[in-house]
Amino acid sequence: MSTLNRTADTATPPVRLVHLGLGAFHRAHQVWYTQQAEADPATPQWGYASFTGRSRGAADLLKSQDGLFTLVTRSGAGDDFEVISSLVDPAYADDTAHMVELLARPEVAVVTLTVTEAGYHLAEDGTLLHDADVTADLAALKDAVADPTGFTGTLRTAAGKIVLGLAARRAAGAGGLAVMSCDNVADNGPLTRGSVCGFARELDADLADWIEQEVTFPSTSIDRITPATDDSLIADVKAATGVDDSSPVVTEPFASWVIEGEFPAGRPDWEKAGVEFVDEIEEFERRKLWLLNGSHSLMAYYAQLRGHATVAEAIGDAEVRARVEALWDEAANHLQAPELKVPEYRASLTERFENPRIRHNLVQIATDGGTKQRMRAVPIMKAELAEGRDGAAAAFSIAAWIAYLLREGATQEIKDTRAEELARARSAADPVRSLIAALDEELAGTESAVALIRSQVESIQR
Helices marked H in 3-95 — which ranges? Predict the structure, then answer.
C-alpha cells in the first residue's frame, strides 16, 4: 500500500487563499472548486493555507500527507475517487503568527471562513458581542495592531485574527483583499463585515477606515452535503485505490456556489468550475436556507422522534416526506423569482435526499438548532403570517425542534452553542413559549402562533 505524499512531480500551487475553519465541508467545497477552476492543472496557480478550528487533529492528519486527501463522490451508481492537491498548507488555529505573515503577502487575495454563525460574535442587532472570547482578544490586541508582526500570543476569534492580519497587510502596503464567509447564514457578507470592522473599530479607528475602504466582504450561498468521515470511508478508499489516506472526505455529486461581490486582489476562475456570480444573492440565500437547510432541520428533529437515523431513511418515510413537501410549499410562496427555478431545485433536493450511499446522520444536523431554526423555520412562518396565513408547516418544524428538546429522557446536555439559554427555557414553567422566545421574541408574543405550535408539540408527543 502507498501513502499520500507530494513528490517532485506533484503540481503544487502557491498559497494565494487562506481559510479559517478547516473541516470536511471546506475540503469538499471551496478546495475542490479551486482545483476544478485551474486553467492548466499541470501548473496550478491557487493554493489554500487552511487553519483548523480549536482542534489540531485535522491539521495533524493532513500535514502527514502534505495536505493531500482523497475526495470520494458517492452516488447510487458508485464511487468516484479524486486526489485533491489545492490544500497546500494545513495549519493550526493557534499559529496566529503564520496567519499574520500570510495575510501580509500581496499575492494572498482571498480569505474564506467556515466558522458557524456563533464564530462571528455578533449580537442580534449586528453589533459586536462582548463575550469572553471577544473581550480576551480585544485585550490581547490592544497594542498589537501597531506592531502586528511582533505578536506572539494566541487569539480566540476569527475576527481578531483577521484584523491582526489586515493590520500587517496595511503596514506592508499590500493593498486590499476579499474576506468571504462560506457559512450557512443569511447575509453572510454584511455579517462578516460587521464582525471584522466592529472588532477593528474598537482597536484602531484608522485601521477600521482602511479596512472599510480597501477590503471587500462578498456574500455567498453554498451547498454540498458532506457527512463526517468515519473508519469505513478510510477502508473504502484503501480498498479501491490502494492508498492509505488517513483523512478522506465523502460527498455527494451535487455542488453549488453562488457569489455576490468584488475581489480587489483577484480570485480563481471559479466560474470555470460552475460557480455562479450574481448581482443580488439574497433570494438564492433564502432558497438554500428555507428549502435545503429548512427541510434538513425538520427531518433532524421529527424523523429522529420517529426512529430514523439518516436523511435517506427520513425522506423514505411518507409522513416525514409530506411534512417536508408542506414546508417547501410555504417557502415557495416567498421564492417567486423565475431565476430561482424552485420546482427544479425541489426535485434535485428529493433526489439528493434519497441517495442511499450518502449517510447523512440526523444527529449531526440536529446540533445548534437554537441558531438554525431561527434562520430556517422562523422566517418562513413569519412571512406566512404577514400574508394572512398561519404558517402551519413552518410551525410544525419549530414544534418538532421543541418536542425533540422536551422528549422523554432528554435531560442530557443540549448540543448547541446556546445550550445554557435553551436549558433554562426547557426548565421554565411554560417551556414551549420559552423555547419559541429563544428563537424569536415577536413570535412568542403572537398568541395564535404560540397556540398553533403548542398544539403541534402535543400532537408529536402523543
Answer: 24-26, 32-36, 57-63
Q: Which helix (H) or strand (E) holds 199?
A: helix 188-203
Residue 22's CATH number? 3.40.50.720
The answer to whether residues 74 and 207 belong to one domain is yes
By the 10 Å C-beta count (0-12 exposed, 13-18 middle, 19+ buried), 459 is classed as: exposed
> Which three cell numbers mark 381?
412562518
Total domains, the chain: 2
Q: How far is CA 19 from CA 99, 102, 201, 440, in A?
A: 10, 11, 23, 32
pLDDT, one tens digit per residue, over 62-87 is 999 999 999 999 998 899 999 999 99
User: Nearest Cα to 405, choosing from 340, 452, 453?
Assistant: 453
415, amino acid identity: K
Grid coordinates 412571512 are at which residue?
A: 383
Q: Report H helices in 306-406.
A: 311-315, 318-332, 342-353, 362-365, 369-386, 392-406
291 and 264 housed in the same domain: no
Q: Which of 53, 26, 172 is nearest to 103 (CA)?
A: 172
Q: Round to whole Å and give the CA distance between 184 and 176.
A: 25
> In terms of Cα–Cα distance, which of 55, 44, 52, 58 is closest to 15?
44
Q: What does pLDDT average to over the chain?
A: 94
Q: 101 and 209: one domain? A: yes
The CATH number covering residue 428 comes to 1.10.1040.10
**One domain for residues 445 and 322:** yes
Q: Which residue, 277, 294, 327, sits at the end of a domain?
A: 277
Q: Which of 65, 69, 82, 74 is nearest to 27 (CA)?
A: 69
Question: Quick check: helix, strand or coil at residue 56?
Answer: coil
Q: How large is the angle between the packed helices 205-214 and 188-203, nearest 10 degrees?
A: 150
For 357, the domain range is 282-461
Cα separation, 460 vs 404, in Å, equals 9
Work out the pLDDT band at 125, boundaries 50, 70, 90: confident
